[in-house]
Amino acid sequence: MASEERANRPEGPISRRSEIRRKLGVDRAWVRSPAVVQTTAVAAIFAIVAWVLCDWSRQQSRWVEGRILTEPLLNRVDYQLENEALTRQERELARRIAPRLYVVNRSYLESLRATIEGLPQAVAGKTSVSEVDASLIETFGLDDRSLLLLQAHQDERGPTTAWRVAAESFITSISGRMPLLARDEFQRFATAAGREVVISHGSQDQHTQSVPIGNAAIQLPDGDPSRFRESLLKIAAEAGFATEVAPIVVRALLSDPQPTLRFDEVATLARAEAAAAAVEPVMQAHPRGEVIGMPGDPITRERIQRLDEERAQTFARTPVVNRWTNSVGLLGLCALLAGALCVGLAIFRPTLLGDIAKLSLLLLGMLVMLLVAVVVSASFPRFEGLIAISVTLLAASSVALLYDRRTAIVTAAAQTSLLALALEEPLGFVLASLLTAVTYVALLRDVRHRSALVRATALTAGVGALAFAFVELVHTPLGGGGVMQVIGAAVFAAGGTFLTGFLLIGALPSMERTFGVVTGLTLAELRDPRQPLLRQLQEKAPGTWTHSLQVANIAEAAAEAIGADGLLTYVGALYHDIGKMNKPEYFVENQVGGQNRHDRLTPAMSLLVIIGHVKDGVELAAEYRLPKAIRHMIEAHHGTTLVEYFFHEAQRRASRDADEPVELDESAWRYPGPRPQTSEAAILLICDAVESATRTLAEPTPARIEQLVHTIIRRRLEDGQFDDCPLTFRQLRTLEESIAKSLGSIYHGRVAYPSTSGADDDGEGEPPEDTTGGPLHPRTQPSPGTRRAVA
Predict the structure, then answer these.
(1) Which of 113, 146, 104 is nearest to 252 (CA)?
(2) Dihedral sign, Cα of residue 127, residue 129, residue 134, residue 140
(3) Helix 84-97 and helix 265-277: axis angle, to 10°?
(4) Cβ pair 626, 575 in contact under 8 A
(5) What is the three-state SS of 166-233?
(6) Under DSSP, is residue 424 helix (H, G, I), strand (E, B) or coil?
(7) Are strands 79-82 and 283-286 parallel, antiparallel or unpaired?
(8) Mean pLDDT along residues 520-545
(9) Residue bearing the bigger pLDDT, 309 or 770
(10) Distance from C-alpha of 368 to C-alpha of 695, rounded to nearest angstrom
(11) 10-19, 50-59, 517-526: which has the highest mean pLDDT?
């Protein structure tokens, strides 16, 4: 009979796959499918944003000073650029050779001119030096002899013409040809490349000009004035003063020596800057093919500048059409990558494509990872390797923990490809990143403790370090700093892996709440019997707790047999009946004798109590913030099955009262659902019903258990309880075998010993088997004394 039933089973999966295909538009009207339109729109937005980020990233300079070049770098176009170093040298030379500008000490010279020129007239008519003004005597050192000498240069109209010409020549000489300078300025004046005197014209100096002068000058005395006096006497003699008169004229300067020229710093700086600005930039030709660097050369600051210049010049000289075609090509690659990602998700995680919110969050997370990578690598190019491996591993590990490993590998491949496009990395980078990510995903298969995550991170760090060291060895010469560069790549790969593990531990709770999923770490905490909710269940409903433990063990083994999440199934089974804590005495497993409370209730009232435990369980789960997956298993562990006992009891009473058969509406006597939407919830539904029904077997032989399991699964199948979950017929067959095996090990037969009380223990009077899996009425539950198979 079982073989005939299996032969009559329809082919194909009894799951939501057909519905997903329909939603995704895998039919003639796929273009009009809302799911396809929404998925296409989200993928298009993803491709455009990724294109913008990649295009911006490829324009950034990421050269790191001190790294060893792994490929030759040549000029791609001919161009000329200013050699800033030579230009600076030329302009600095122009500043140095710019003349020092001086202004005449006009007030001093005018006063000196007037004094010398008017000296003969001041002593004219004086017969004795005592008649001359004392200040003149002190200034010029006059005596009777010098008085007569000076009077000789005076006529009736004043000083003679020769005297005035000599005085003018003397003042002109000390103001320009042989200026008087202080000691510090004298040294600068003598060594300057050029010297000019600024001459102004007009009463308010509206017009000025500068006149070049030589380097001859006289230093003002700071000690013995004899040398200074000799120089002045020579100038005075050359100016036309007689030998005997020259000492008198010179005495005027000796009594009050002052510089006749003053350095004009503002004008000198302005002239120097003007001279520097007038220097034309020194242009240097860079022909196409010019070598910037060869493999093995270190990257210096000058090379980085050359590389940045070459990139800018190449971009400026590239035709606009070529630039646009390059950009369009990059956009096409991003679009192809988005399409490949969606195809991979459609193959390995089709439900994700049907949920636009979750798909959008996944793609947004990948874009955020890409944004972080390109910004950090552009700002800190030395840490590009560390941030790249961290981003890839964080994306892959998050998806592995939140969804599944196959989806994680698809995500890692897409993320690595995006990074390779954005950072212009070679194929070796892609291979090493994928290997590291796949290793991490494989090691995160069953993370139930943080120590397992730490161990997975440490092992992946070793694999990543080795992989990136090999990639670096392929390209980097070991001479110079090549060895350190290889070691640095390995260290950054390992550091990025440890950074990912650290971030993952901290961010995992937030990701679970955002994506509505549960990870092994959370499930491992929830399965602890010391959890507050489980503690209450043990205290208030010990029978229900025992039942939940039995169901959890059976369901976990069944889930692992078909590749489902065994830990999730186990935890869901522990919590599936927590709603019974509110009215534990109304459920048979918690009744230890005494009057049955259902005897005083109508079937309709008993139905409300029985069904109410699902609603109460969901409310408790929400109050204690159990994950969404666990809450679904609580509300769906009966699906929309019929509460058979009370339905038949109500139908019997109605027929008795009406004296004729009465057919009641089954829909009013069913659980509110929903039906299981995941494999784990469907497994729990089966195991809950089977475990309850197996308790009623008088002789729990393997054959009877197998038949019972097969019957219950078949009835749930025909009742449509598996229509919304992804179970296939093959998986149902595997579940049937696993559950029967687990029940056989629990409810196995025992040797019957002679009764000491003489009571008949052959099972007479045992209730019939209940294969519905629904709640059994207490009166149908066998007593311990009449049950042969006890776990």
Answers:
(1) 113
(2) positive
(3) 140
(4) yes
(5) HHHHHHHHHHHHCCEECHHHHHHHHHCCCEEEEEEECCCCCEEEEEEECCCCEECCCCCCHHHHHHHH
(6) coil
(7) antiparallel
(8) 87
(9) 309
(10) 54
(11) 50-59
Could you tell me which residue, 81 or 785, shows the higher pLDDT?
Answer: 81
From residue 458, how far is each of 436, 489, 532, 566 by CA, in Å? 12, 17, 34, 26
**Helix ranges restricted to H, 318-449:** 320-348, 350-354, 356-379, 384-402, 405-423, 427-443
pTM above 0.85, yes or no: no
Instruction: Give 16-38 pLDDT, tens digit per residue.
Output: 445 544 444 444 444 456 778 88
195 bridge partner residues: 100, 213
3-state per-residue secondary structure call for 591-611: CCCCCCHHHHCCHHHHHHHHH
Let me know: does 50 contact 244? Beta carbons within 8 Å: no
Nearest to 376 by CA among 295, 492, 486: 492
| The token pair that represents 533 in the structure block | 């909710």
Integer angstrom CA distances of residue 518 from 437, 511, 552, 604: 21, 9, 18, 37
pLDDT tops 70 at residue 516: no
Residue with tokens 């006890």: 790
| Closest listed residue to residue 146, CA positions, set 245, 280, 288 | 245
HSE-up of residue 768 (Cα within 13 Å, Cβ side): 4
For residue 761, give both structure tokens. Answer: 């223990």
- In sequence order, which residues have a C-beta less than 8 Å from that of residue 608 and are 6 or more positions away? none
Strand duo 73-74 + 79-82: pairing: unpaired
Instruction: Name the phi and psi angles at 230, rounded to 5.
Output: -65, -40
Determine the 3-state secondary structure of 68 from DSSP: strand
SS3 261: strand
Phi, psi of 727 (to 5 degrees): -70, 145
Q: Is 774 exposed, middle or buried (0-12, 13-18, 19+ CB in 10 A)?
A: buried
Q: And the tokens for 44?
A: 């298009």
Across the range 104-122, mean pLDDT stands at 89
For the chain, what percent of residues have pLDDT higher than 70? 87
Question: Which residues are 181's β-sheet partners?
Answer: 219
Mean per-residue pLDDT, 620-638:
91
With beta carbons less than 8 A apart as the criterion, state whether 182 and 220 touch: yes
